[in-house]
Amino acid sequence: MAAITFAAAIALTFISLQIFGNSKDAQSFGSVSVEPIVEIAALAPLDDETLNTPDILSTELAAGQNPTQSATNNAQPALDALGNPLPQAGLTGLPNIGTTSEGPSSNGIRPNNNGSKTILIDGKAIGASSLPPAPFAGLTRETQYGTAPSKDDNGNSPLKSYNRRFTGASGQQPVSIIISGLGVNRALTQQAIDSLPPDVTLSFAAHVTGLQDWINRARTAGHEVMIEIPMDTINFNPAEPGADKALLTSQTASENMRNMEWLLSRAHGYFGVINYNGDTFLTRADVSAPILATLETSGLGFITDGDFSAPSLNALSQSVGLPYKNGFGLIDPEANTQIIRTKLDNLTSAAKSGAQPIGVGFAYPETIEAVTSWATDLETQNLILAPASHTLVK
Question: What is the value of pTM for the model shown?
């Protein structure tokens, strides 16, 4: 019965199609006209890869330069958000220093005298602390180890170009701090760069990896920079990092000069050098005199930490024309907060007498915290924190 029912259903369907269906329904006849696709006249600039548009990120731009202004050669002067004209520096590999927000300078950077406006918060200019990247054009010389600092043909020097400028304040005596040993411990180095006032000078061990990057970070934060030259000491340790490039009394003059060239060529952007140890080396005029002469021809300054006596240094520096200053001494002979505070009090007393002292400390957490706190109270004592270079720049 199932088979008969199924066969009957098929037969009924076939008969219905024959009677009521149209065999031509599934066939196509004739044609339809379709309008041709309209071509796009031109691609949008962002879509057209054949357009010769300027690449404003293809080269290094000087600080404060408007990239679109330079790329399009707009005849109208470019203005910043405050309405100040932006400097029109050339698109070269080295910065073309033009204007600055810090006022008149003796370092070859032209001041901005166009009456520009500056945003102040608590009396301090926003962005005025940052120092431009180094090296500046002309302030380098070739050595067997790469480029090292040098004076240029116009008499500009790293000392006068890379220092943080200081104008002082009426009735306030200057006092300076150098924090040294930086670059060895990454966390403490970054803490010093970030937390210490910009007028604190930072000094980096010359042998550390990534020295140029550290100097760049410090200058961006507004700190002027020095590097440390390892020197012979009574308890010299040849296994200490960087000791293989130290200046030693046991080496020949040519060996010391070779090490000196290596140390100086490690980076750019520092205004001078400071000793690391050296109580043996710097008390020997016969071995230290050629080194001082090299610093002078390189256009650098020299500051000692004042932790030992070297009576001949002042006369030797004067004889070669080297800007030199003996430091007040170590503010942290031990990483002890109470000792550091006592040393800072001594430094404060010396500053009040008009001695313009320079205290030197290491990158200890206790030192960084104590100096940060100490600096906030200087104004109430008629003192002002000054970059260490201010005693060298005439």
Answer: 0.70
